[in-house]
Design a protein that fits this description.
Blueprint lengths: L1 H34 L3 E3 L8 E3 L3 H15 L10 H6 L10 H27 L3 H4 L2 H5 L1 H11 L3 E3 L5 H4 L2 E3 L2 H20 L6 H23 L6 H25 L8 H18 L3 H6 L2 H14 L12 E3 L4 E3 L2 E3 L8 H12 L5 E4 L5 E5 L3 H9 L4 H24 L7
Antiparallel strand pairs: 1-2, 3-4, 5-6, 7-9, 8-9
Helix pairs in contact: 1-2, 1-11, 2-4, 2-11, 2-12, 4-7, 4-12, 9-12, 9-14, 10-11, 10-12, 10-17, 11-12, 16-17
Bound molecules: uridine-diphosphate-N-acetylglucosamine (UD1) and magnesium ion.
Uridine-diphosphate-N-acetylglucosamine binds next to β1 and α9.
Amino acid sequence: MKDEHTTLAVSILMSIVAGIFSYKILPKLRETFVRVNLSGRDMLKADKPLLPETMGLPIAIIYLIVLFSFIPFPFINWFEGAKLVHEEQSDFATFPYNKLGEILAAILAIQSMVLLGFADDVLDVRWRYKVWLPAIAGIPLLIFYYTNMGATHVVLPLQLRPYLGELVDLGILYYIYMAMVIIFCTHSINILAGINGVEAGQSLVIAISVIMNDMLYIFNNPDGASLEAHLFSLYFLIPFVGVTLALLYHNWYPARVFVGDTFCYFAGMTFAVVGILGHFSKTLMLFFLPQIFNFIYSCPQLFRFVECPRHRMPRFDPTTGLLQCSTVRLNDKKPTRFLGNIMIKFLHAIGLLKVFQYDKNGRILECNNLTLVNLVLAYVGPMSEQNTTLSILCIQVLSSLLAFIIRYKLVHFVY
Ligand code: UD1
Ligand code: MG
């Protein structure tokens, strides 16, 4: 464990340096990004200022440089010439190539995602195509998994074991599941977005929660088989926290920079990588509860059962300076599909929809856009942008607490 302490100390040190460097460099890059048209209007301000977008790119590059420089440290003993020369048997025979391969595959997946995210920011790829980008970037990861780990079985809940046994081998379905985790992690952060600080803020809360979970695991099972997996997770998430903190500082209300899709994809892929290679993708999903809710809630619009405008962010009221929930008009440009109407009625019935207008037959004509941010504003009433972000981050923190309770207390009823 002593070696691991040193490696973790190096990781923390590098992350602090990366954070400070990111903090200093972002303001310097602002003009350059605006000059090359990597910019967007801050829609929720009275004067709609033009801000540099895609600031996730420099952040991700700094992160990758940190990881590149960090690669030797988990193997530091193997680089000590004395040990290699003086030991009788060849240590090369047992060099943990699979551990090195794991780190390289993870870096490659994150790097590919950053590249595709940047392409999306520049080209504004349509949703029907960009949905698949994370799966493409995840291919190196899945191939590594196939050749080195290959475990495709899952442990079944206690209640199902009398019928199906303790383990079930999912085979190819497990790879489809992993691809879906990657697609979900990346896009779910990108659609819980649109107000200053929310993309970087939620990613920070998730990263800190996963780090706390790793620490709990390491302290409780210092020699357990999963120690390596949780250390691996720490090596990837500690630098992520470093650079994300700096980005959040500049993206916090009133934002001086936007994070861009590059950051959302980069963050999502980093989480997916540690969850998949660390074998804790189900626990990871527990830290995505607000994103899971936001995704399911958004489905009627994402799958076009209900009209989905290009932007679903809240609406800015210039007279009060507060945000209100933005709305969608049903049957406006084209008639809302039969299933869409049923979904809307269902959401209304369970209290998850605020209706703004009915037609003379009592049918819903206008309701809030189906996102968590709009739902909070619909219930709580108009709020400043900063308080709206804080509310979402509070929900994220409370969900993390719930996730820990489920993971460490309630789990015994099921596993
Ligand atoms: C996703 C959401 C969209 C939301 C957008 C906001 C879905 C299906 N898509 O689209 O509804 O409006 O994110 O990021 O849910 N912006 C701000 N303030 C912010 C952040 C962003 O005004 O704090 C605006 C800026 O004009 C910026 C733009 O949003 O240029 C970025 O939107 P983009 O990331 O391209 O939208 P999508 O990810 O496609
Ligand atoms: Mg986006």
